[in-house]
Amino acid sequence: MRRYLPFLFLASLIPMSVSAITVSCGSIAEASSCTRCFRFDLAGSNAANNVFIPRSSIPSGQQEYIDLAKSTISGMTYQGASVSPTGNITNNFDRFASGPNVTASWAWAKTKSGQGVVRGNIPTTVDANKPVYGIRYTTVSHLKNQAAPNAILPGTEVTQVSCDFFFVKAATSICGNAIREGAEQCDDGNTNNNDACSNTCRTPVCGNAIREGAEQCDVGTNNGKPGSPCTTQCLNAGATSVCGNGVRE
Known about the structure:
The protein has 249 residues and is mainly β. It contains no helices and 14 strands. 0% of the residues lie in helices and 27% in strands. The protein is elongated, with a radius of gyration of 28 Å.
């Protein structure tokens, strides 16, 4: 039995002044059915296109054939964001550049003029670490004989789903909103400065002259020095003796 190798499917959206980053689909919760994923920053508007690469080994006399009737493109929004278009957006794209028969890399889908991705209202509470919009390209293809254009070879159909996710950069970091943003090291959403996340959304560090988390004190570079009220573990000197820290307590 002849074995057919599945094709590789390379998707590349080209947003205006924005570049794509290939990411693991497993790192994005919304990518459960995707075989390849890309990450983009969502600009005001984004043109989009998708580059198709045929399967790696096509026998002589055969060629890849994309079944346009089965291949679809859909748009989805997340986190209450207003981004368009959504739903079945197949008709928003010119779906082939050289016809559905391919023997080399070629552009399978690109947005039609005036029908790109448009950013609308983005809630202030959006999590910048999660996507606000996605495009899902579902492509079905077969192998067929070049000499007989309508002779699709049975058992050679493969389906690939390539997903592109758009993220927004947090304009400002708001410490205390339970969303880790920007340069924040943590954000537990409370105003308790004596837990694992400070009120400035920094992870407590003994020796920075700021009393944070479970620290009893913190006098910076004076921690642990003779006569200092604070040990190198940011505990009140004398309250707890730590043998071996070089400080008689």
